[in-house]
Specification:
By secondary structure, the chain is an alpha/beta fold. The protein is built from 6 helices and 10 strands. Helices cover 28% and strands 26% of the residues. The structure holds adenosine-5'-triphosphate.
């Protein structure tokens, strides 16, 4: 889906996160572990937020909660669609499943491999589900596999046999073949070689220009330095004894 807006129009609000919090119940320890709390921010079309914080600060959990792989404990995440607003924190699973088909994407460093499905079919699937003809979708899938450096000899093979980096390239091709309006990225460059990293950054630049809103966690933030509009620093939610927990802070990016 290509979303265009005229350059002089104010970018549309895509996501408004208000007071979002998430805790894990550690039954075996008999206590509750806060992952993050009190998260507030707005994200507009074509904007890129870089999520930062120490190990364990809650970056992946925040992305998974916004994608609704986890349920939040408190707060709201209002997703602004073309025809209305839905609170991702409270939406029914069936609505979340529909949003994931076209509107909201999530790229992690892990491929969910499906047995006996060829790489090119896996990549073509979002286009087929969106109504493209199978032949046309396969042609496009091969183009994307090639752009991320997946060898032609692997296109018809099963990704379960691929190396970690090859699987990740299939993951990227599948996630980006049909761009969503809102994209979460959790360390997507983790196992990529330089060529694939450059291809990913070039694709993200295109998507940003088309109005896709993005939130990303990057082990090497310099990979996306030219794309970042704002940085969001997550402070570790679990205070050590004697330490106050501080609120998460927004920082403007200085290129
Ligand atoms: N399913 C879970 N059950 C219990 N605790 C969890 C679960 N998932 C995450 N946590 C805890 O929540 C906290 C935040 O984890 P998270 O993976 O979001 O951190 P992160 O900022 O992405 O870390 P890293 O930079 O190491 O990837 C950690 O203390 C982690 O142990």
């Amino acid at each position: 889906m290509n979303i265009q807006f005229s350059p002089d129009a104010a970018p549309r609000l895509v996501l408004s996160v208000q007071g979002l919090g998430k805790s894990f119940e550690m039954h075996h320890l008999g206590r509750v572990l806060p992952a993050f709390a009190g998260i507030d921010f707005d994200l507009h079309a074509g904007r890129f937020i870089l999520l930062k914080g120490e190990n364990g600060a809650g970056k992946s959990t925040l992305l998974r909660t916004l994608y609704r792989s986890c349920l939040p404990g408190q707060g709201h995440a209002f997703f602004h669609m073309t025809d209305g607003v839905i609170d991702l924190a409270q939406a029914a699973d069936v609505d979340i499943a529909l949003l994931r088909r076209r509107e909201i994407g999530f790229i992690t460093q892990f491929l969910q491999v499906r047995p006996r499905v060829a790489a090119e079919e896996l990549v073509a699937e979002p286009l087929v589900l969106a109504g493209s003809g199978h032949g046309e979708a396969l042609t496009e899938a091969r183009r994307w596999l090639s752009s991320f450096g997946v060898k032609q000899s692997l296109w018809a093979a099963y990704p379960s046999t691929f190396s970690g980096g090859e699987q990740q390239k299939v993951n990227l091709a599948r996630a980006l073949i049909l761009p969503p309006r809102l994209l979460f990225l959790d360390e997507p460059t983790a196992s990529l070689d330089r060529g694939a990293r450059l291809a990913l950054v070039a694709r993200l630049k295109e998507l940003k220009a088309q109005g896709v809103a993005m939130i990303g966690v990057f082990h090497n933030p310099e990979d996306v330095a030219g794309l970042v509009d704002r940085e969001f620093l997550l402070e570790t939610a679990v205070p050590e004894p004697g330490q106050e927990r501080r609120k998460p802070a927004f920082g403007e990016h200085h290129a």
